[in-house]
Amino acid sequence: MSKYQDHKEKYLRFKKDAENEELFIPTRIEAYFNAMLHLIEAVASQHNVHIDVHKNLRRILESNTDVFGEDTETVCSNFIKLEKDIRPGQVYGSRINGGKLKEAQKAVSLIENICLKDLK
């Protein structure tokens, strides 16, 4: 399987888990985070760009603006919101909050609206 296919398959599987309302909210948020990482990686791989480590996402996408063009900032800022603002408190901290799940879903929607139009 190619990198593109691997990332697309992981996106679909993590997204399915994220939408499973029977799962624990922090588990769903972690699944949304992983789904978006793999969705962004799938699109980037179509441009021969590989992120590999989520901490490098902004730097790599800003260095390769052909991947998302004028939407680069929207993709980066919403991914970083998931990574640094929503995920840590829900997954690692003591907070469990349905409001944070809704924030995650909003960030996911913005990323998907951009990525899915470019996904083959």
Characteristics:
Four Helix Bundle (Hemerythrin (Met), subunit A); single chain; 120 residues
Structural overview:
By secondary structure, the protein is an all-alpha fold. It has a single domain, classed as Four Helix Bundle (Hemerythrin (Met), subunit A). Helices cover 72% and strands 0% of the residues. The protein is built from five helices and no strands. The chain has helices at 3-18, 25-45, 57-63, 72-92, 98-118. The chain is globular. The two termini are 15 Å apart. The mean pLDDT is 92.
In helices, the fraction of residues equals: over 70%
Radius of gyration: 14 Å
- Note the main sheet: none
Shape: globular
| CATH fold descriptor | Four Helix Bundle (Hemerythrin (Met), subunit A)
CATH class: Mainly Alpha
Mean pLDDT: 92
Short description:
The chain has five helices and no strands. With 120 residues, the protein is an all-alpha fold.
List the topology elements.
Layout: H1 3-18, H2 25-45, H3 57-63, H4 72-92, H5 98-118
